[in-house]
Amino acid sequence: MKKILLFITLSYMLLAGTFSASISPITPNIKKRMLSGNSWREGCPVGLQDLRYIRVTHHDFKGSTKTGEIIVHKDAAQSLVKVFKELYAINYPIKQMQLVSDFKGKDWHSIEADNTSAFNCRPATGSKKWSNHAYGKSIDINPIENPYVSRTGHISHTASLQYRKRTHYPKRGVADKALITKDDQAYHIFIKHGWKWGGKWKGIKDYQHFDFKKSFF
């Protein structure tokens, strides 16, 4: 019975205004996208049966409500939907949310598009070990406004240079609201639901990055 339940689509709608979300197992069509998009393959540290596909509404940078898609580990799925529900309630903007498969599994291209994503079967930056993204237990949110900063202070993406200093500049408009600091509501929403922030790491700072409960690397 338990095995059968693994293949039954688990979905629900959470309504708060026009907010909605659904969680489902990886369908054959989604698997095909992941394989052709090089975000999953045989030998990855997590099987497709342990991943979940989420569709969720969010505010974009133009003030419109969009439906995004993201893949995470089954253990993190419900927590992440709760995070998105609260982010939606405070009007936190997300530039776009597409599967990293749409960028051929290339983290660089996903970041350049300011794309919010989670699962991607790849090693950690600067390491041969699996990234927590390869387990589906990390999310990168608005990566241009929340850049990865190396130990030496280097930022690879030119568009992120203006966000090196972690303070708000309201004149930047909606993009300013996407910037996350330890004093922001967005940060506290993630923490409340069991996520840890890369912006608090020592040395390297990964302001876009949140890990669910436990890091594997």
Outline the structure in words.
By secondary structure, the protein is α+β, with helices and mostly antiparallel strands. The chain has one domain (2-212). The chain has six helices and eight strands, in the order H-E-H-E-E-H-H-E-E-H-H-E-E-E. It has helices at residues 2-6, 28-36, 74-89, 107-112, 174-178, 185-192; strands at residues 21-25, 51-59, 65-73, 138-140, 148-149, 195-197, 205-206, 209-212. The strands form three sheets. The protein has a three-stranded antiparallel sheet with strand order 1-2-3, with helices on one face. Helix 3 (74-89) packs antiparallel against helix 6 (185-192). It is globular, with a radius of gyration of 17 Å. The model is unreliable at 1-16 (pLDDT under 50).
Q: Which band does the percent of strand residues land in?
A: 15-25%
Helix count equals 6
Question: Mind telling me the C-alpha Rg?
Answer: 17 Å
Number of strands: 8
What's the N-to-C terminus distance? 34 Å
The run of helices and strands is: HEHEEHHEEHHEEE
Mean pLDDT, rounded to whole units?
91
